[in-house]
Design brief:
- The protein is an alpha/beta fold.
- Helices cover 32% and strands 35% of the residues.
- The protein is built from six helices and nine strands; from the N terminus they run ααααααβββββββββ.
- The strands form two sheets. It has a five-stranded parallel beta sheet.
- The longest helix is centred in the N-terminal third of the chain and has 11 residues, at 4-14.
- The termini are far apart.
Length: 149
């Protein structure tokens, strides 16, 4: 692929990316592209952009995971920190959030995840497509699920 940043920009423009985002795009490295993906997640979800296959082919799994992005993975996480989590494709398993955590979790496609919120944690889940979740809230924890199907 000649220039990943330019390729993704052109795909986004073809899908209707607004002028301010287009003009501010620049020549981004992979980390900057991931930052854009997370910041513009509503656009990406609405347009199914980029595809899971594209993500897996062009981004190192370790870099994605370090940014709390998962594609077609089994998850068995305990005491996870605050953050924005994005689960694409066919993710399965469980995520247990540490006490006092504040997290947003986007669960997409055919993922099936068990989410456990530790004491006093606040977890907001956005559910899309055919994804399914099970939740558990420990002492004074809150898990809110927004079904966007």
């Amino acid at each position: 692929m000649e220039n990943l940043s330019e390729t993704l920009k052109q795909q986004a423009v073809d899908l209707g990316l607004c002028r301010p985002w287009t003009e501010a795009w620049g020549d981004c490295d992979r980390q900057e592209l991931i930052d854009k993906y997370k910041k513009g997640i509503d656009f990406c979800i609405d347009k199914q952009y980029p595809s899971n296959e594209f993500i897996k082919a062009n981004f190192d799994r370790a870099l994605l995971n370090a940014n709390l992005i998962f594609v077609d993975e089994y998850l068995d996480f305990d005491m996870m920190p605050s953050g924005i989590y994005i689960l694409n494709g066919e993710c399965s398993g469980s995520i247990r959030f540490a006490p006092w955590t504040a997290a947003t979790v986007y669960v997409r496609h055919s993922s099936h995840i068990n989410i456990i919120a530790g004491d006093f944690a606040k977890v907001f889940v956005r559910l899309y497509d055919e994804a399914e979740i099970e939740t558990e809230a420990e002492e004074s924890a809150v898990v809110k699920v927004y079904d966007r199907k």
